Every structure is written in structure tokens, then in C-alpha cells.
């Protein structure tokens, strides 16, 4: 390669740097949104009629909106819709966690005491004859 070709390639790289940066941002935002969609679907499935129908409907509506937005490449819109899904999903997850903890109830505390009473000792065996 001669010097002119190298200079031309450097200028092209500089010219495309901004476009590359924007594309990278879109890809990262899309990945976060896809991950959140998966998490929302899993949480809804885990609720399976156990939680507030109102919260589930809010999450489902925000999920549909975000999935529709993901068909495009508008990073700002994807970010906004991701935020719109995050709040109700957090509330739904918190409700699911509370229900899970309440279901454990006193059994969870008793289970912890059982484990402490097992008297398991972790030790290393040394064969004195082989020294």
C-alpha cells in the first residue's frame, strides 16, 4: 500500500467513526431491551395467576410496545420504552418475591436451623505413614 491509500483509508475510518458509534449504541440498547423482554416474559409466566392482574396487564402492555419499537432502530425510543417496562416489571417482580417469601414462612427459618445442626466437618486427610 502506498501512502495515498493509507491516508484515504484513515480518512474513511474517521468519517465512519460517528456512524459506527451510533450503530454500536443502537445495538447495545437493543440487547438490553431484548434481555428485559425475556425477563418480563419469564416473570409473567412465573406469576401464573398468583399476582395482581393489573400489574401483569401493565407489564404485558409495556412489553408489546417495546417489542414493536424493537422492529425499528430508534435508540432513544427503545430507551424510553425500556424505561416504561422497567418500572412495572420491577413492581411485579417485587410482588412475586414477597409471595415466595410468604409461602416459605416459618418453614424457611426452621430449615436454616436444621442445616446448622448437621455437624458436617470439612477436613483434609493426611497419611502419616507416607511422610
UniProtKB/TrEMBL annotation:
The keyword Mitochondrion does not apply. GO terms for molecular function: ATP binding; ATP-dependent protein folding chaperone. InterPro entries: HSP70_C_sf, Hsp_70_fam. The lineage of its organism: unclassified sequences, metagenomes, ecological metagenomes. This is Chaperone protein DnaK. Keywords: ATP-binding, Nucleotide-binding. Residues 119-131 have a biased composition (Acidic residues). The gene is dnaK_51. Residues 1-23, 102-131 are annotated as: Disordered. Gene3D superfamilies: 1.20.1270.10. Pfam families: HSP70 (PF00012).
Amino acid at each position: 500500500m502506498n501512502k495515498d491509500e493509507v491516508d484515504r483509508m484513515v480518512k474513511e475510518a474517521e468519517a465512519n467513526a460517528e456512524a459506527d458509534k451510533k450503530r454500536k449504541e443502537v445495538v447495545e440498547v437493543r440487547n438490553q431491551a431484548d434481555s428485559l423482554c425475556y425477563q418480563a416474559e419469564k416473570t409473567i409466566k412465573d406469576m401464573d395467576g398468583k399476582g395482581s392482574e393489573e400489574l401483569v396487564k401493565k407489564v404485558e402492555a409495556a412489553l408489546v410496545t417495546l417489542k414493536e419499537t424493537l422492529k425499528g432502530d430508534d435508540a432513544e425510543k427503545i430507551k424510553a420504552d425500556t424505561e416504561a417496562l422497567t418500572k412495572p416489571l420491577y413492581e411485579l417482580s417485587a410482588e412475586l418475591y414477597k409471595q415466595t417469601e410468604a409461602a416459605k414462612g416459618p418453614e424457611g427459618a426452621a430449615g436454616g436451623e436444621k442445616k446448622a445442626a448437621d455437624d458436617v466437618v470439612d477436613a483434609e486427610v493426611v497419611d502419616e505413614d507416607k511422610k
